[in-house]
Description:
Oligomer: single chain
Strand order of the largest sheet: 14-13-12-11-7-10-9-8-15
Largest sheet: 9 strands, mixed
Bound molecules: nicotinamide-adenine-dinucleotide
Distance between the termini: 42 Å
Strand content: 15-25%
Amino acid sequence: MKDGKLQIGFIGCGGIAFNKHFPSLQALPDLCDMVAFCDIVEERAVKAAKEYGAPGAKTYTDYNEMLKDDSIDVVHVLTPNVVHAPATVAAFEAGKHVLCEKPMAHSTEAANQMLAAWKKSGKKFTIGYQNRFRPEVEALHKACEAGELGEIYFAKAHAVRRRAVPTWGVFPNKALQGGGPLIDIGTHALDMTLWMMDNYKPVSVSGSVFYKLGHLEEAAESNIFGPWDPKTYEVEDSAFGFIKMENGATIYLESSWALNMLGAKEAATTLCGTKAGAEIRSGMSVKDKEDKLVYNRGVHGKLMEEHCSPGSAVAYFSGPKLTDGVKEAMQWLNAIKNDTEPLVKPEQAFVVTQILEGIYKAAETGKEVFF
Ligand SMILES: NC(=O)c1ccc[n+]([C@@H]2O[C@H](COP(=O)([O-])OP(=O)(O)OC[C@H]3O[C@@H](n4cnc5c(N)ncnc54)[C@H](O)[C@@H]3O)[C@@H](O)[C@H]2O)c1
């Protein structure tokens, strides 16, 4: 800490660093300084330090060198998925608090190593599931906590894109990411769904994983990010899972980067409870801004739907712009400062990783996987 501010170092200065972490932390100048930037591509670390670094910020190409700096309190791990575990473990061994991007890890073995290193360190640990901080998601979570939906016994976790294969970074690289849309965006939808259900006890999963469109030139042509390269596309293009929980509750998870289906829905969930149902209809790729959260239930003999109303419009608002990223960063830094638990608990993120791995295994073996 310097002048009451947490000193943050970054491992990985790519897309999520520049689009979420750096601008969000920049909005919290009273809580932190961005003092160290590491990337195996040196110019990315240098660019990050120049645009966001505190005076005297340092740059590195080897995170082990960066972690030797005792003035760094907190490390954000923002690398491809397979680097999450080694970088996080090294950061805990160096005595840092760690925020690691989602998914926690590409395998449960790697995630277990992270949990072990965290517990040994006595430091704080969280995972970057910023969708939990969207206002409509927070509102639905409050309703679930208050029991307004009753017992939630069936849910759908949605992460469906029609054609939105990421064309930057290393997303279609199996060795570096561990998988495609299931591990990349299925992870957000599943995290949100489990959090709403407050149910982290899976007993079994079955699943289907498809490699149908990724290799097709004609499918790549309609990608919203511009055509992907079918020759280097290694991961699944869609994956579906059926998850049974210890109490009998069941979740259907759908995920795709490319799928011939209408109604793209991402970072979204559908919940069915004994008292009411609810849907988060917004999400990263969905346009229906006014229809983010819908409740449904029977009222006095009629089936009803309740939609969110738009707030009143104001011409000028001088307060801080509380994006999901800023809210995530604020609660994370405050959890460290105040010695409280961050919202996203590592054990919860572990269960997400466990289920995703189970779906890949079930699809590969053609058999239901039991935990
Ligand atoms: N929370 C979200 O919604 C969200 C969105 C996008 C990505 N992500 C996650 O963030 C992570 C990074 O994704 P991205 O889109 O920024 O990818 P990216 O490829 O744009 O950036 C990753 C960066 O890490 C660097 N890197 C790789 N290995 C390294 C190492 N050993 N040491 C230091 N730097 C290293 C790369 O050079 C690259 O600059 C992934 O795990 C991804 O799942 C999360």
